[in-house]
User: Which sequence fits this backbone?
């Protein structure tokens, strides 16, 4: 069993990861702004930490086997670009200082279209998600230039929604995974399976990867 530090454990993705990790018997330290919002599950301890406080975050994750970051700068926040990028940098710096592997949940916008361009740069990309997607793209770029940090970066499918835990999905690299209907989608429950699998196996260290049905 592993010791997992989970950032954003009370959010949409974080809640699903918390349940998946707990169900497998892992010990989870949930790092959040408000510990009262963390679901009380077996093996879970909630701790209040400001992710932008690199020193405090590093102290909180020392001794953990892996960090899963479901951090988000806040959809709808007009300053999401700066908040997401600054938070992402602090998380990477803290993981590096604590010498702990980190798995980052990023956006799908930086995945590559057939012509090699990134979807986030398309004029058709939804404006409501553009700043957040740009921040996630730049956070990935920063990770790729890191030395001395074990990291992996998961770009979900384009459609991420509540659904079933099937445990059946397909992996991709820098291009999205499409199903027979040319749709890129996955349930948040299966995304959580992917993330805990990555925590256990470290198959994509130093890489960005994606998943879909």
Assistant:
């Amino acid at each position: 069993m592993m010791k997992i530090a989970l950032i954003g454990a009370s959010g949409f993705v974080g809640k699903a990861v918390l349940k998946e990790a707990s169900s497998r018997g892992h010990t989870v330290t949930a790092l959040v702004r408000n510990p009262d919002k963390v679901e009380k599950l077996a093996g879970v301890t909630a701790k209040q930490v400001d992710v932008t406080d690199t020193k405090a975050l590093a102290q909180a994750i020392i001794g953990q086997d892996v960090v899963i970051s479901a951090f988000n700068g806040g959809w709808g926040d007009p300053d999401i670009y700066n908040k997401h990028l600054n938070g992402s940098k602090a998380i990477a710096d803290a993981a590096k200082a604590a010498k702990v592997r980190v798995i980052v949940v990023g956006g799908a916008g930086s995945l590559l279209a057939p012509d090699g361009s990134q979807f986030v740069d398309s004029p058709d990309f939804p404006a409501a998600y553009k700043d957040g997607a740009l921040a996630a793209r730049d956070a990935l770029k920063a990770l790729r230039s890191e030395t001395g940090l074990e990291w992996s970066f998961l770009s979900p499918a384009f459609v991420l929604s509540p659904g079933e835990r099937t445990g059946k999905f397909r992996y991709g690299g820098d291009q999205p995974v499409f199903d027979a209907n040319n749709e890129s989608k996955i349930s948040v429950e299966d995304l959580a399976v992917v993330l805990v699998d990555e925590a256990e196996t470290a198959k994509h260290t130093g890489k960005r990867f994606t998943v879909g049905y």
Summary: The two ends are 28 Å apart (CA to CA). The chain is about 35% helix and 20% strand.
